[in-house]
Amino acid sequence: MLPTYPELTTYAEAYPYVPLSVRVPWPDHLDPWELLQRLQPTLEGAVLLESGRAGRYSYLAYQPMAVITSQDGQTEAAFPDGHVQMLDGQHPLDALRRFLAQYRTPALPDFPDFYGGAVGYLSYEMNRFFEPSLPQIAYDDLRLPDLYVMIMQDLLVFDHAKRECFCVTHLPSRGLTEDSYRDAADRLSRQAEELSRLLETAADDTDWDALRKRPLESATPAEVSFAQEQFEEAVRRVQTYISQGDVFQVNLSVRQSKPMKTSGPEVYGVLRKLNPSPYMGYLQFPEFQLVSASPELLIKVKDGKVSTRPIAGTRPRGKNDAEDEALVRELIENEKERAEHVMLVDLERNDLGRVCRYGSVRVSEFMVVEKYSHVMHIVSHVEGELAEDKDAFDAVAAAFPGGTITGAPKVRTMEIIEELEPVKRGVYTGSIGWFGFHGDVEVNIAIRTMVVKDGTAHVQAGAGIVIDSQPQAEYLESLKKAEALWKALELSENRKKSREEKSV
């Protein structure tokens, strides 16, 4: 049990809440997603955050102690007993900062990066809280909250390096006694025992090779927010703005929507096998679900260190190794792609410079190629040291929304996006992730993300438009970036069909 009771009493003198955890072995066959599937029938709010690329931790949380939403300028906290508290403040992030301060915990060295706090998303339209002058033109067809986070005091953390599972809870410092410590420890121990029983049987028996080879049914045509000719006209409009000196680059996007024969959880279960990515996530809200395989970090703050990982430059994967390597060389040597990437890395350096100690911002990794199931990208890593008068919320505010999905200069490109894109982006190019009770944060850029609402799947993707962009090619690139999600949808429908056939 960590921490011990004497350690906990020391922390309780300085913090309103203190964390407590017990660890259990993590069997090799365990898949956190299968565990969530077993828990899911009883859940109304749940989240699973994973990394498909050498990430150390996966986070599974459910039964939130509160849910905070912001919509139409109103931010509120809803509690399980039905009580709703209106949160003061013009900015939803300020309201969230103040709410989490009530539950501030110490940063403990033997604990994972995240062990309690707010988990959820910030929509792209949160940008107007950072830049109040931005126009509001695009149609809000999905009507999703600008901010939607679940406050989690209890969660499971899977340590991939040590093959351990943390069961974590939090105790109020006021009134902390050895008896309350023992009661919480006993509850965690019972949870660990129940978890162990679930782990013994939580195995995925799906034949993934056979499923991938099974012919896909004819795909239902997707409705698009931008017809191709309208998108291409918008590209030409952006190029006019560029030639006039307004901007250097603008990211334009297309939303595709189609009815589903399966569910959000089923799609995520396939996507994590089909296209493992650094910032995977499944978020289950009562009204809708999010299925995400984002490759891109917006901001991470850990122990006073701030980092971001911009992506700019894309090519499809090759049909074989030789073609793949040829595409890598063509991508990395392409002058247009290099210039665009350098411009956006500079933008991110400037964003971090607003909240980091002077002279501490540096590019620690520059223009490497990362490969995914359907595309490859050029990626860099920018980091710095958080200034003493700034916190994790300031870091998010400085970088949000990411420059790679808006363009440069950022404010003017957001004005142009609002003018040209017909529907609000919502979750797309916002951020998904967590704000810890202990003051750290990690949020992605919500690309390669599906919104599942009212039996319909919505996927949005875009392309960076520059002066010499080819309108048709940019439209096709936008569609290409969404392919992994649509393939996951179709495979999940086939998986469901296979199960139904076996049960007959």
Automatic annotation (TrEMBL):
Keywords tagged on the record: Coiled coil
Pfam families: Anth_synt_I_N, Chorismate_bind
Any one GO BP annotation for this protein: L-tryptophan biosynthetic process
Gene3D superfamilies in the cross-refs: Anthranilate synthase (3.60.120.10)
Coiled-coil positions: 178-205
Domain Chorismate-utilising enzyme C-terminal: 228-481
Domain Anthranilate synthase component I N-terminal as annotated: residue spans: 28-166
Name under which the protein is recorded: Anthranilate synthase component I family protein
Upper lineage: Bacteria, Bacillati, Bacillota, Bacilli, Bacillales
